User: What shape does this take?
Amino acid sequence: MSRLGRVNSMRRLRKMLIVTSALALAQVSQAAAPSCWRMGSGQYFASLEFCVSSVQASRGAANFGPKNLLASPGSRRAWCSAVGVEPVGTWIKIGIEKGAAFRRLLVSNGYGATPDIHSRHGRIKDLKVEIDAVLKTTVTLADRAGLQTIDLGTAGEFASLRLEVLSYYPGTSAANVCLDYLTPDFEDLELPIPSQR
Assistant: This one.
């Protein structure tokens, strides 16, 4: 190959690298942006809105958006934060329009599709929970798949919740955190509340 041919090959290679890098950066930037999903009326609310600080980029048919927070626990779907974005500080906001009273949240920690997938992705350890921008508490989640409860310490018809990751259990290969279920437990208060003395 002549010197001119090598120079042209190097220029083409450099252009391909620049385009590939730009596409990868655009994908990370898009995934690192906040994302929201709104659910219309249900038995206990006029609407629910889930917003997250970031979303892992889709892989084929698999997506990891906030809609997956209401997937059935143990399903093959989950919300996962963006890979390459520090999980500490990642947040989830739940907006509740005309909701019934509740005192706890139901959560399934990690991406529980299979034990292998569960261990590959990070799981949330410590969470700061802010209720209606006033009440605040910190909770620790167990490092296991399956339903857990987050006790809010009080019952009420709350309009908003903000959960922020303070620490996490690292995954074996993905530098992010996942949840495959998160919802207010509206049905819990249909049972009698023990008197608080």
Observations:
- The chain has two domains: 1-30, 33-190.
- The first strand starts at residue 35 and ends at 39.
- Strands lie at 35-39, 47-52, 79-80, 91-97, 102-109, 123-131, 135-140, 147-156, 160-169, 178-184.
- The chain has a mean pLDDT of 84.
